[in-house]
Amino acid sequence: MTKSGPLLPRLALAVLAVGLLAALTAPPDRIQGNLQRLMYVHVPAAWLAYLGFVITFGASAGWLWRRRPGLDRLAAASAEVGVFFTGLAIVLGSIWGKPVWGVWWTWDPRLVTTAVMFFLYLGYLALRRATLDPLARARRSAVFGLVAFVQVPIVHMSVLWWRSLHQPPTVLRPGDPTIDHWMLATLLLNLVAFTLVFAVLLRARIDLAAAADAVDSARDEPGAELAEQAVAVPDAGGGQGRG
Amino acid sequence: MAEWAWVAAGYVTAYGAMAGYLLRLRLQRDRLRRGLDRTS
């Protein structure tokens, strides 16, 4: 970690440990028993997927307004971390769904809209890789980042708009949360822990993009053969100056 | 007991995925930086 230093990862690890302890000692659910403890990792993962795409939306709008390379880099990094947490939320939902619903997957509105959001932002990342010119890539992905965000409220509202097997919102809903206060405190603690991990991952992804940009700059200099070798690392794309 | 196995599977998946992703990002960054150091 360069700018945030080692403090943030250590803080994230500490809060994550406390969150794990709280999740394993919180009271079991009256109906689902201990299986309900999966909520403390599934729900934060889903919320952070939203956060990732909110940041991508804001940074995309910011890039179109100010044209600052850092905003493009932030949008790309946040989209990738958002895709990671979307995939994690889907997998954790499957692990929770199998013993509770009896199936790994069902064509439920919440699940389907989440899968659409996952593939939509995979498309965003694919678009970035497919465009070589840095300016064109930033412009196209900024527009994509704005349009794709429409899917985020659709995912959140899907359990209210359509008849769904998935439970409706228990915290982000009108009125008081419908969850036991101890469980709510545990959930919020784990949300803080996962948010800190999100910040660590985002910082690491931005650092990687910055390193890729530096390699590109070095490669553009005359006689930089060794930089050519360095840029051969796969999957390091996403930075402003790459291509 | 089976309930705890599902819970363990979920937590190992969550923490393992986050740790693996962070490790991948840092290893890639370090490889790029090493390449840059060789050029300077």
% residues in beta strands of chain A: under 5%
Termini separation of chain A comes to 25 Å
Helix content of chain B: over 70%
Oligomer: heterodimer
Low-confidence stretches of chain A: 233-243
* Rg from Cα of chain B: 17 Å
What structural class do helix, strand and pairing data of chain B support?
A: mainly alpha
Shape of chain A: globular
| Order of helix and strand elements from N to C terminus of chain B | H
Structural class of chain A: mainly alpha
* H/E element sequence of chain A: HHHHHHHH
Kindly report the average pLDDT value of chain B.
91
Net shape of chain B: rod-shaped
Helix content of chain A: over 70%
Radius of gyration of chain A: 20 Å
Q: Largest sheet of chain A, if any?
A: none
Description:
The complex is a heterodimer of chains A (243) and B (40). Chain A is built from eight helices and no strands. With 243 residues, chain A is an all-alpha fold. In chain A, helix 3 (69-101) crosses helix 5 and helix 3 (69-101) packs across helix 7. The two termini of chain A are 25 Å apart. With 40 residues, chain B is mostly helical. Chain B is 95% helix and 0% strand. Chain B is rod-shaped and about 60 Å long. The mean pLDDT of chain B is 91. The interface between A and B is medium-sized, with 40 and 28 residues.
